[in-house]
Amino acid sequence: MLEATHNILWIDDEIDILEPHICSLREKHYSVTPVSNGADAVAIIKESHYDVIILDQMMPGQDGITTLDQIREVNSTIPVIMVTQISDELFVEEALGKQIDSFLVKPIGVAQIVSTLKRVLDQDRIIEGQIPRNYTESFNEIRKLIQGHSDWRIWVDIYLKLLSWDLAFDELGETGFKETHKEQKKELVGCVARIDQSYQ
Length: 200
What we know:
Oligomer: single chain
Number of helices: 8
Strand order of the largest sheet: 2-1-3-4-5
Number of domains: 2
Distance between the termini: 67 Å
Order of helices and strands: EHEHEHEHEHHHH
Radius of gyration: 22 Å
Helix content: 55-70%
Strand content: 5-15%
């Protein structure tokens, strides 16, 4: 049996009706944890890792938006796909403001779900693929800033650029460029030290 490719948490008050969809996803080697309400889902997220959440917007009691707010308090980066019957522009704007990664509009089919899952789950890989080019451009810019500048405001700018890459690598997880970044930071620190000595 092939190992599951991704772990999905599916939150819907009518989760039993969705069992055929869940079975189809499992046949496609997704691991699916079904849960019927937002409160239980938030508790599960605190204990287990998931790659993506499928969240129904219209649920009795604690609705999807309220559940999403609580999910973001626990995990601010996990991708969330919201299932809705509403295509209202104001609702879409509100949901996007709360970091919804994609939407599924009912009625939904397995092909539609799989297509959306692939698009959302591939985002990190696409972003990571852009890192080498963006990082190289940023680091070259930092090198240019260092050369011939003693203004403290330039050093603040350099520090902020390095810090932004620290945060980016931490958010994306371990990548080959993270180690490269550490080594290049050491090189920059040495360069700064030499410049500082030249002014003494």
